[in-house]
Specification:
The chain is mainly beta. It has two helices and ten strands.
Length: about 200
């Protein structure tokens, strides 16, 4: 079912009529992360807490269907004395409940306007992450769900707040089963160029 949904979204994004509406932008966020991990050599699960998590997203927006395809990079720059214990690159989709910000709207037969308003969104993405802790260096696939809101600060600049939760999907090996779950709280800026 999920694969069919991704296929439909992909077809909508690459169909010729949708190309005219595609725009792109990027956002940068800093935030807090709580990551809990477990593997066979540990007696119990451990956690990493970090207030220095950085995330950068590049979005390809399709305002006609209120969606964006995203490419995301996230890293925990420092936690528990470890430098870059967790990095992640992911692809996914966002759905804007009230429409994409900055979308052109025809007010009457001769007047166009851009609409800027607080816009909530929900998102899902699939990623490849690297966890480097306790003499373990594992690469795993994961999935995350997020919700957030964009608040206009000025034309073409939005304040973004979001919360996300995620979990690992795969283990690096059968002998040393690795798993993790994480939660992020981000605040950042989105730079928009809808011209």
């Amino acid at each position: 079912m999920m694969l069919k949904l991704w296929g439909i979204l992909l077809v909508l994004f690459i169909s010729s009529p949708s190309w005219a509406y595609l725009t792109s932008d990027w956002d940068v966020s800093m935030g807090l992360t709580s990551l809990q991990y477990d593997f066979a050599r540990l007696e119990s699960a451990k956690s990493l807490e970090s207030s220095t998590t950085l995330e950068v997203n590049y979005s390809l927006n399709n305002p006609s269907i209120n969606t964006a395809m995203t490419l995301s990079f996230m890293e925990i720059t420092e936690a528990a004395g470890l430098q870059m214990p967790f990095t992640r690159i992911a692809v996914g989709a966002r759905y804007y409940v009230l429409g994409v910000n900055g979308m052109r709207t025809v007010l009457d037969s001769r007047t166009q306007a851009k609409v800027w308003r607080s816009t909530p969104f929900v998102a899902m993405n699939f990623g490849l992450s690297n966890l480097a802790v306790d003499k373990l260096n594992a690469s795993l696939l994961d999935v995350s769900l997020r919700g957030g809101v964009e608040i206009p600060m000025m034309s073409n600049l939005l304040l973004v707040g979001q919360v996300s939760v995620g979990t690992s999907l795969t283990s690096s090996s059968d002998e040393d089963s690795v798993s993790y779950q994480f939660m992020n709280l981000f605040a950042g800026l989105r730079f928009v160029g809808f011209e």
